[in-house]
Design a protein that fits this description.
By secondary structure, the chain is of the alpha/beta class. It has a single domain (about 10-260), classed as Aldolase class I (TIM Barrel). The protein is built from 13 helices and eight strands. Helix 1 (about 20-30) packs across helix 13 and helix 6 (about 115-125) crosses helix 8 (about 145-160). It is globular, with a radius of gyration of 17 Å. It binds 1,3-dihydroxyacetonephosphate. 1,3-dihydroxyacetonephosphate (13P) binds near residues 12, 179 and 242.
Length: about 260
């Protein structure tokens, strides 16, 4: 039996908070969280690129336990790719986690499974941890294609990745119809798909990797629904959008153990 997986709750700020707002938000979050919160949950924040250096400096100078993340990167180390940011640049800022293949990047910027796979490898190759996203649209769910879609995204995203690397990764299951809509998946549906993701990881990278990989649920996570989601066997954390922008609300999510489930 594998050791218990450490929960991980991540705030994906998307295109919100300039660097001044980001500093305020992280300072407030730091005051809301205590040592017990940090020892029981890994907390990562993923600000826009322009905020990263400010947040790095803040976190390091005040010895905060909040972990710095990014939202995307390019797969090449450098080159003529106007507007892109390379993984080594993020590593230099002590970024630890990088979201890869978010559904908004796939939908609005045309990211393919093959590109997601290249990004996963670039993040790992630079000593950081990918949070690789997968998830189905409402049409796909209604057509009974949700499992197949997620399976394809996980298989192609992890193609050629070392088992030890898969074991240390985070995979975020985010049903697209639940993102920013206030419609959260039922905890049973979220659990079923996260269990499916773990089964696919076992097929791709073996039982040990499947037992260790951490799987987040994302999509309208709020203080009121987090405890129920976190009580599910295969849900190890959450990728939080809107509710991570305000420090009090995000702290309440991180402190889900204090909530009464029901
Ligand atoms: P919301 O929490 O705003 O639904 O966003 C989820 C998400 O996309 C996190 O990556």
């Amino acid at each position: 039996m594998a050791a218990k997986r450490q929960p991980i709750i991540s705030g994906n700020w998307k295109m919100h908070h300039n660097h001044f707002e980001a500093i305020q938000c992280v300072q407030k979050l730091h005051y809301r969280l205590d040592g017990d919160d940090h020892s029981s949950v890994d907390v990562t924040v993923h600000p826009p690129f322009t905020d990263l250096r400010s947040i790095q400096t803040l976190v390091e100078s005040d010895k905060m336990q909040i972990v710095l993340g990014a939202q995307n990167c390019h797969w090449e180390e450098k080159g003529a790719f106007t507007g892109e940011v390379a993984a080594p640049f993020l590593a230099k800022l002590n970024v630890a986690f990088v979201i890869v293949g978010h559904s908004e990047r796939r939908e609005y910027f045309g990211e393919t499974d093959e590109q997601v796979n290249l990004k996963v490898k670039a993040v790992l190759g630079n000593g950081m941890t990918p949070i690789m996203c997968c998830g189905e649209t409402l049409e796909e769910r209604e057509a009974g294609q949700a499992e197949a879609k997620v399976e394809r995204q996980v298989r192609e995203g992890l193609a050629g990745v070392l088992k030890e690397h898969v074991a240390a990764m985070v995979i975020a299951y985010e049903p697209i119809w639940a993102i920013g809509t206030g419609k959260v998946a039922t905890s049973d549906d979220a659990q079923a798909m996260c269990a499916h993701v773990r089964k696919v990881v076992a097929e791709v990278a073996g039982a040990d990797a499947a037992a260790s990989v951490r799987i987040q649920y994302g999509g309208s996570v709020k203080p009121g629904n987090i405890a129920e989601l976190m009580s599910q066997a295969d849900i190890d954390g959450a990728l939080v959008g809107g509710a991570s922008l305000e420090a009090d609300e995000f702290a309440a999510i991180v402190q889900y153990r204090n909530h009464v489930t029901g």
